[in-house]
């Protein structure tokens, strides 16, 4: 019995490891809704990344061809800048990010990164160049350590801890009974939406890709933590001159962007800096005033409650 159990244990652990890596892949594919119709062209070369300029040329796209979401979009996202995409719900903000990541291909027009049509380069090199913090972060049924480490499996544990510190989540993790070995995911400990978002930022910091996308990435955080994390993300973007695109509802989180793009019905309604757009007195300035009024009301309520 003893003699038999050794190889069986060995096989068991190999099986578990293999199963885990298959599960990782499966989770990632399911959670990121990878579209199998998007494929590499034969012998597609890798993306040659230089400064990180993104261009949309006459791009049209609909999830169903009879219902266009992006309509003949022409847009240049300058390299190394902080860009925000804002606009009413359902206008196609997240769709723009999905097209850039090639979850889907546009039906018309083309998308270029540093002058290369993204359909002509290998998918793997494209996706390696992009880091996304999505609205809802996919977590593996694994430890917190593995979930952050996934950003860059070549990184050391110390680098994982450092990334967690920079994403303002190290202290929370250290406070969990099992620390970095805490199991998360569907079958693990429930962690809050805000912790998930910071975990995703830590994963992104570790991956350190040249293009950064944030899709409502800090919406689940309280104002204080959000400001701290945003200021860290801002310094990262500035220091490394990364092209970064923020999709946001709350304009207070993006008003300092180099360019703000206001999307409406799948096209650019307005574009410029916060000051320019406020002066213009159009859609952005309406959205800003509405949110500021709301913000002032909430603040007043808070202050009244504090006084009691
Ligand atoms: P929000 O601010 O509410 O997140 P958004 O501007 O990011 O919205 P998108 O998520 O880009 O909007 O969606 C644009 C439109 O496409 C919406 O009408 C949405 O219902 C539709 N849509 C999004 N994903 C799919 C999908 N996988 N299949 C079909 N329609 C979709």
TrEMBL record:
Locations listed in the record: Mitochondrion inner membrane
ABC transporter domain location: 54-290
Family named by the database record: Belongs to the ABC transporter superfamily. ABCB family. Heavy Metal importer (TC 3.A.1.210) subfamily.
Assembly: Homodimer.
Protein name as it appears in the record: Iron-sulfur clusters transporter ATM1, mitochondrial
Native organism: Ampelomyces quisqualis (Powdery mildew agent)
Origin organism lineage: Eukaryota, Fungi, Dikarya, Ascomycota, Pezizomycotina
């Amino acid at each position: 019995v003893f003699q038999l159990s050794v190889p069986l244990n060995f096989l068991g652990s190999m099986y578990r490891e293999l199963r885990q890596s298959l599960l990782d892949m499966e989770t990632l594919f399911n959670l990121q809704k990878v579209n199998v119709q998007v494929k590499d062209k034969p012998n597609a070369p890798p993306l040659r990344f230089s400064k990180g300029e993104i261009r949309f040329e006459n791009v049209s796209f609909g999830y169903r061809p009879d219902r266009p979401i992006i309509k003949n979009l022409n847009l240049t996202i300058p390299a190394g800048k902080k860009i925000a995409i804002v606009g009413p719900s359902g206008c196609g903000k997240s769709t723009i990010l999905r097209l850039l990541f090639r979850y889907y291909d546009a039906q018309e027009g083309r998308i270029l990164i540093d002058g290369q049509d993204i359909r002509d380069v290998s998918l793997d090199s494209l996706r390696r160049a992009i880091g996304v913090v999505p609205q809802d972060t996919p977590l593996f049924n694994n430890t917190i350590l593995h979930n952050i480490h996934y950003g860059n499996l070549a990184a050391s544990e110390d680098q994982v801890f450092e990334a967690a510190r920079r994403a303002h989540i190290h202290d929370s993790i250290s406070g969990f009974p099992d620390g970095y070995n805490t199991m998360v995911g569907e079958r693990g400990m429930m962690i809050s939406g805000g912790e998930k978002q910071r975990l995703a930022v830590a994963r992104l910091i570790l991956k350190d890709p040249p293009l950064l996308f944030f899709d409502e990435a800090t919406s689940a955080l309280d104002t204080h933590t959000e400001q701290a994390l945003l200021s860290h993300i801002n310094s990262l973007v500035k220091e490394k001159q990364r092209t970064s695109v923020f999709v946001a509802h709350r304009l207070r989180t993006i008003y300092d962007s180099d360019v703000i793009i206001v999307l409406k019905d799948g096209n650019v309604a307005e574009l410029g800096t916060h000051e320019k757009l406020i002066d213009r007195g159009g859609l952005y300035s309406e959205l800003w005033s509405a949110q500021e009024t709301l913000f002032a009301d909430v603040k007043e309520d808070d202050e009244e409650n504090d006084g009691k």
